[in-house]
Design a protein that fits this description.
Blueprint (H helix, E strand, L loop, with lengths): L1 H6 L6 H28 L6 H14 L6 E3 L1 H11 L1 E4 L2 E6 L2 E7 L4 H4 L7 E5 L2 E2 L5 H9 L5 E8 L3 E8 L1 E4 L3 E6 L4 E6 L6 H13 L5 E5 L8 H11 L5 E7 L6 E4 L11 E5 L6 H11 L4 E4 L7 E7 L5 E10 L18 E3 L5 E3 L8 E2 L9 H8 L4 H8 L9 H7 L4 H13 L6 H36 L1 H7 L2 H7 L2
Parallel strand pairs: 11-12, 12-15, 15-16, 16-21
Antiparallel strand pairs: 1-18, 2-9, 3-4, 4-5, 5-6, 5-7, 7-8, 10-11, 13-14, 13-18, 17-18, 19-20
């Protein structure tokens, strides 16, 4: 640690280096002495490793909101959620002494062995699930040191099944759903940016291209970002060559860069709308800003989060990691996306090549601002959705024999929850202690129909089915489609 501190002060004059170096060494000595006093004399015994970790976290937390120190377990979980992991490809929720599979990753060991959404996992490697906590489950299902896992599954109509799944390296899918939301408009929902996102999008655009879309809706809402190079690769496919996509500036030469569009693969120049919201952050904002500032797309929705900083990963021998802010992003027009307290640049504006005005505000400000889509929810329905046993999903499982359309798109377009099913749901919830008043029902009917339809789709087509039902029911999606003429005016 002393070496790191001394490296940080190189660049000063000789006398200042000596003074700063001696001060840093003195502070490190004092820190060691404080730690020793706590270990020897504090009224309660404390784990020195725990104290050191708390000290590191305190040091990093004082820097900025996005720098963080992660323990080995936290770092592995972060990688699993944002990049890739070793596992079998299952998403599940705990319910009634078992694990209910909510979705199965495409091309994963679980899918190859026939595991389905709605299956109930009772035992994992011979151990009853009800006696395992979350850490135990993660260790068994994801730990690299265990090359396989054996599951005992209960399936409606099939009784008990046993499957053995061989773990392998899995990259989380970036595209939650892609389909023709109207006869002429393709819809693509990107949830994260990983090393595989550009390749996923290439396949998606090829498949949509067979249906001859005349326009495109790219949904980046609730996308927190991921890998910078992924967002750059996608922007490159939509922009003409030799356009600046994003630049970064930091204290060192390594942290400063400039990414420019190439002559490589390009997508057809379809009129395009990009949908964003307050949870679109980082690389989502980079992509949206590049498409907006080069007049390639109409940005619609809500102002984005405002995370315009670069975090570099530094890993350590114990498996822990430091995610350290090392640079700031700048858009093609030279705007910083970073949310800064007391920022005084709010009055400044920029012009795109076609003369559109872009304000120097935090994050990306949409060309068309939409109202937040927040349907009213009764207190009774909130309690149902927060209940650990998930009574809504359990009800849908009990109706799993319902005849459905042959594919998810047909289901989304044509299926509606019947009045009989709706009434059956309210009666089932009443038996479980969730009674809806007449007022609750009037407030909840439409939302309950949507939730039931979404879970039915989830049980049959996984997360893609849920995402498709959500898009078809989303008022912001439908409202954004009314601005396609404005997007057409930007087409190059």
């Amino acid at each position: 640690m002393i070496v790191l501190v001394l490296l940080g002060i190189i660049g000063m004059g000789p006398e200042r280096i000596l003074r700063a170096g001696q001060t840093a060494i003195n502070k490190m000595v004092i820190f060691t002495m404080v730690l020793e006093k706590i270990e020897r004399f504090y009224i309660a015994e404390r784990d020195p490793n725990e104290l050191m970790e708390q000290a590191i976290r305190g040091l990093v937390s004082d820097l900025d909101p996005h720098s963080s120190y992660l323990s080995a377990a936290e770092y592995n979980d972060w990688k699993r959620r944002s990049q890739s992991y070793s596992g079998v490809g299952l998403n599940y929720r705990v319910q009634s002494g078992g694990l209910v599979v909510t979705s199965v990753l495409n091309n994963s060991p679980a899918e190859e062995k026939g595991v389905r959404a709605g299956d109930r996992i009772l035992r994992v490697d011979g151990k009853m699930v009800e006696y395992l906590d979350a850490a135990d489950l993660d260790a068994i299902l994801q730990d690299d040191s265990r090359p396989s896992v054996k599951l005992q599954i209960e399936r409606t109509g099939a009784g008990l099944l046993t499957v053995e799944l061989m773990k392998r390296y899995l990259v989380l899918p970036s595209i939650a759903a892609a389909f023709m939301i109207t006869d002429s408009t393709g819809y693509i929902k990107i949830t994260r940016f990983t090393e595989a996102t550009a390749a996923e999008l290439d396949r998606t655009m090829t498949e949509l291209g067979r249906q001859a879309p005349k326009s495109l809706l790219l949904d980046l809402r609730d996308n927190p970002g991921g890998l910078l190079i992924s967002a750059v690769q996608i922007a490159d496919r939509f922009l003409r060559p030799d356009r600046v996509i994003v630049s970064t500036a930091g204290r060192t030469a390594e942290s400063s860069s400039r990414h420019v569009s190439t002559h490589n693969r390009k997508y057809p120049p379809l009129p395009m709308i990009v949908l964003v919201n307050e949870a679109s952050a980082s690389d989502s904002e980079i992509l949206a800003a590049a498409l907006q500032e080069w007049d390639r797309a109409l940005i619609v929705g809500r102002p984005t989060f405002g995370k315009g900083s670069v975090q570099t990963e530094y890993t350590f021998q114990d498996g822990s990691a430091l995610l350290l802010t090392t640079a700031i992003y700048f858009t093609p027009l030279g705007r910083s996306l970073q949310k800064i307290k007391d920022d005084a640049s709010g009055g400044k504006s920029y012009r795109t090549p076609k003369g559109r005005i872009v304000q120097a505000e935090t994050g990306v400000h949409p060309d068309v601002l939409l109202d937040a889509d927040q349907p009213a929810m009764s207190e009774t329905l909130k309690k149902i959705l927060m209940a650990p046993e998930n009574p809504l999903l359990r009800f849908v499982e009990s109706k799993s024999s319902t005849q459905l359309s042959s594919n998810a798109l047909s289901f989304c377009r044509h299926y509606s929850v019947s009045e009989t099913m709706l009434q059956s749901f309210y009666e089932a919830m009443k038996r479980e202690g969730f009674a809806f008043s007449n007022r609750d029902r009037r407030q909840s009917d439409q939302l309950v129909r949507f939730l039931l339809k979404r879970e039915i789709a989830g049980l049959n087509w996984g997360e893609e089915g849920r995402a498709m039902v959500t898009a078809f029911s989303d008022q912001q999606v439908h409202k954004s489609l009314t601005y396609l003429n404005k997007a057409r005016a930007l087409t190059f």
